[in-house]
Write the structure tokens for this entry.
Amino acid sequence: MSGKKNRGGRTGGPSTPQAGNGKGKKDEQETPSRVQRMMASLGLTFKEVKDPRARRGQRHPLAAMLMLLVQALAVGRRVLRHAEALGRTCCAKARRPRG
């Protein structure tokens, strides 16, 4: 574990860069990371959660909102407005043409 401190002041953890594992870029792109596997698993779990909202109040899928909240908390956003801004930023980047 690295001795550098991350944003939360703790050592180690997801915000601290880890030493390479000796694999090339090709291997890193093909093999999902532990975090990617965890997020995929959470996404599947969130899809099973029954949505308690009235049909009229459902603008966005509940699973997508829960995933956004988890991601926002993971990057240090502790206020719902900040999580909402993160969602807008991610959506805007996803809509931009690549190339």
